[in-house]
Specification:
Arc Repressor Mutant, subunit A, single chain, mainly alpha
């Protein structure tokens, strides 16, 4: 993702955040925004490590069990990046 695509993605997230405030969706805004950013970061780490969860966790700076829990919560299939 180039810088302009990153900027557009962040702007879209901030627009959604603003719309959530307007709709009165308090209580889920933080979780929704964190998940919107967290999932693609995890997927990119798994892609770069060819689905190796231990290496991906090290790259991300989190414990392997934390990564496994997030993979499960987001329904990510690490096998799709395995060689």
């Amino acid at each position: 993702m180039n810088d302009s695509a990153k900027k557009a993605y962040i702007e879209a997230l901030l627009k959604e955040l603003d719309e959530m405030f307007v709709r009165g969706e308090s209580g889920i805004i933080y979780k929704t925004m964190v998940e919107a950013v967290e999932r693609p970061i995890i997927e990119k780490a798994l892609e770069r490590t060819y689905g190796n969860q231990l290496k991906a966790a090290k790259v991300l700076g989190i414990h392997r069990n934390t990564l496994k829990a997030k993979i499960s919560r987001f329904g990510i299939d690490p096998e799709r990046w395995k060689l």
